[in-house]
Each structure stands twice: as C-alpha cells, then as structure tokens.
Amino acid sequence: MGALSGLKVLDLSRVLAGPWASQCLADFGAEVIKVERPQSGDDTRRWGPPYMADNHGDPTQESAYFASTNRGKKSVCIDMHSDQGQQQLKALATDADIVIENFKVGGAAKYGLDYQSLAAINPRIIYCSITGFGQDGPMASRPGYDFLVQAMGGLMSVTGAADGEAGAGPQKVGVALTDIMTGLYATIGILAAVNERHQSGLGQYIDLALLDVTAATLANQASNFLLGGKTPTRLGNAHPNIVPYQSFVVADGHCIVAVGNDSQFQRYVEVLGLAELAEDADYASNEQRVLNRDALVPLLQRRMLDKGRDQWLAEFAAAGVPAGPINTIDEVFEHPQIIARQMKIDVAHPLNDSLTLVANPIKMSRTPAEYVLPPPMLGQHTEQVLAMLCSVDDGR
C-alpha cells in the first residue's frame, strides 16, 4: 500500500508538466488513468530517437522521452471529440479524486470537461489546469512552451556565460526545467487540496502557469532584484551571492568548488597554498569576497592550473572543502553514490523485460515509491478500464 493508495487520477495532460505530476502521484500508489488520443496518443511517444529497445535489442516505437515521464499509468484511448468519448470521460471523472489537464484556456469546456462541469457531478474533484500563462491576464489565451517561458520568465537571462566571455549569451537550461518544476508544483498543490478535502469534503480548482512557476523559482535571483534593486546578469558558473562558488579550469579539465562559508574558504586557500588570503580583509568574509571577486578569482584560478582534477579533488575532500567533478550523464549513472542510492531501476515492460528508468528521489521509510507498472503502450488498458465502467453502469 503506497502513501497515495486509494487516490484515483484522471490524467488528460500530455507532453511533460502534467505527466510529470501524475507520474509522481503514481510512484506513491495513486491509480493514474492516462487518457490519450486514438492512433496518435501523447505527442512525446514520437519524440525520438532514441527509442526503447525490445528484448532482442531492436528499437521499438516507444520513445525514451515518453518512458521518462509516464511509468505507473494505465493508457486508455478515448476520442473526446465524440459524444460517447465525452460520456466515458465524465463517468471516469465521477469516480476520480483528481483531474489533471493542460488544454489551452477554455479548451476543456468545449468537451464538457472543465472544472465547473465535472464539479457539478463530483463535488470532491480536485482539478488541476496547467497552461503557459494561467487562466487570466493579457496572455492567458496564448500557448506556452518550456523554452519560450524559460526566456520570458527571466531564467535564460541568468543562465550562460557573462558578456565579454567566450560563448557569451543567454542559454536555456539543458532539461525542460520549467515544465518539470511546474509538474512538481502541481503535485504539491494537488496534495494540499487532498489534505484540505479531509476537512471540507470538497474539491477545488488549481490554476498553474509555467510563467508563474518560472518567476517563483528564480529564488534568490528574484530576491536579489526585489530587495537589492539591481537586475541580475549572467555569471556563467559563478554564484551571485557566494564566492568562490564556481567552476575552475585545472591542468586536465575542470572542477567545481562550492565554498559556502568562511571556514571552508580558509581550508580551501590552505590547500591551494594561499593561506594568507583568508587573513586579507578584502577576502576574509563572504561579503568582501563578493565585492572583490574580480580581484580574488584570478588569484585562485592561476593556482588551480597547477594540478589535475582528481588530485585537487582528493586534497579538497581530505580538507573538508566542498568540490566535485563535472560529470557527463553516463558518469552520473556509474557513480557509486547514485548506485548506492538506487537511482536506477528496472521495470518489466511488455516489450522489454528489464526497462531501465530513473527512480523517484523521495526516500520514504514506511511507504516508499513503488514501480508496479511500466510506461504503458498506447491504449494498453482501454478495454480493461472501459469494461469497469460498463460493470458500474450494470450494477455489477
């Protein structure tokens, strides 16, 4: 029995933000029915290569992208443009706790699947809408995509090399972080509404916008502007509020140093053979190091060139200085810490007995995440789920 066992989710969303939320719920035991278009399904089924290999090592038509965000769900093909399909979806919503959708604003109402319509037949329904810009405001009707919103929401303005450096210019994050964070906020909002329902007995409507989430997750950068009055700029791999907290070039590549307090800085410069810097009034405190970064960082960088990555990292580890390599993704999944934390899982798929996926990072002591169902094949559970509807209608 998972932590969310007993919750039923009707997932009308596609691509990433909504499916990320429903996958999180499924990992902890919620029953998730993923509704897909007949024949084509979720757009991400075709977002490849790469595609999952079958038991013989041959590629299938199941994309790696789709597999990353749809485990634990039942796939049901329903044509919501048809009267029959709309009735089937309303019947599923009658028995559901949660609905997740990412139609354009007003899109669900065309099918009678908006919150007001479904709450009328199921007042306990918790209904989460995910859009680019929210349900109101001057841009509400416009479509929104992660890349677009990373740019509009300011994230790209603080990501990338600083002006004047090689390769300078705004950059998007290497994964669709706005979509993923929106999925996580959706999960939080849904579970908050579930808890409130214990008191009120009623569901409620959740309005989530990618742009809002991007603004919220600017975190200290937003606060630096709102409280400090200065617009943040790109600093490459440096930190706006902590120095040194960045990458350095070493004799054979790069490594990261993440000095978070003054005692760590003292140990760091001792390892470098520059212990006198910790006594210098310009560098003794983090505040002074931030103000004087342009003078300090070149001193550190010159010394970092004296040795290779692994030698520096061994010396930093011995001295208790936070530092690490810049791993490639293959190195990440070969890392002993990732292996020890069981962040790779194998799930049996109808076409691949040992499909490897990334685990949920939440480690719960009594009700851990479980991976009962693989990412479903298109329409794999249509007959099963619709047969259950018929049984309910027949009183069986």
Q: Care to give the gist of this entry?
A:
By secondary structure, the protein is α/β, with parallel strands linked by helices.
Can you describe what's shown?
The radius of gyration is 25 Å and the shape is elongated. The chain has a six-stranded parallel sheet, sandwiched between helices. The chain has a three-stranded antiparallel sheet with strand order 9-10-11, with helices on one face. Helix 1 (17-27) crosses helix 6 (177-200). It folds into two domains: 8-217 and 345-393, 3-Layer(aba) Sandwich (Rossmann fold), CATH 3.40.50; 245-326, 2-Layer Sandwich (formyl-coa transferase, domain 3). The longest helix has 24 residues, at 177-200. The protein has 396 residues and is an alpha/beta fold. It contains 15 helices and 13 strands. This is Acetyl-CoA:oxalate CoA-transferase. It is an enzyme of class 2 (transferase). Its EC number is 2.8.3.19.
